[in-house]
Model the fold of this input.
Amino acid sequence: MKKRVLFLCTGNSCRSQMAEGLMRQFYGDKYDVYSAGVNPTEVNPNAIKVMKEIGIDISNHTSKSVNEYINQTFDIIITVCDNAKESCPIFPGKAERLHWSFFDPAEAIGTQEELLKAFTEVRDQIKDKIHSYFKKGGKQ
Done:
């Protein structure tokens, strides 16, 4: 049976969406992967664009509220921003809780090229963190 992983951030628009897409791509055979936000908005077009650059399509993803998952059990809950960590509700079961804080690329300022650079950097940081954790079977 696959373990269940939930990525949480504030808006479920960038970081948690990219994490969900990356995790499904690389470890979807071993994990059921979900993402949500404490204040969901919409998936950021720049997140979609930088994920497509590496062959992962998240264009059909939607931003979801953490409340959609509140009565579900997860094996691992990963907050990817400080706000989500502080606002994360209590989930049933004994989920392992991890906190991986990443800069919010949606807050980047500059030209479109500079914005995409910020999204790419965060995407790559998330990818590296996922690989470093899950390659070892989910051990820090």
Remarks:
- Helices lie at 15-27, 45-52, 82-87, 112-134.
- The two ends are 22 Å apart (CA to CA).
- The chain has a mean pLDDT of 90.
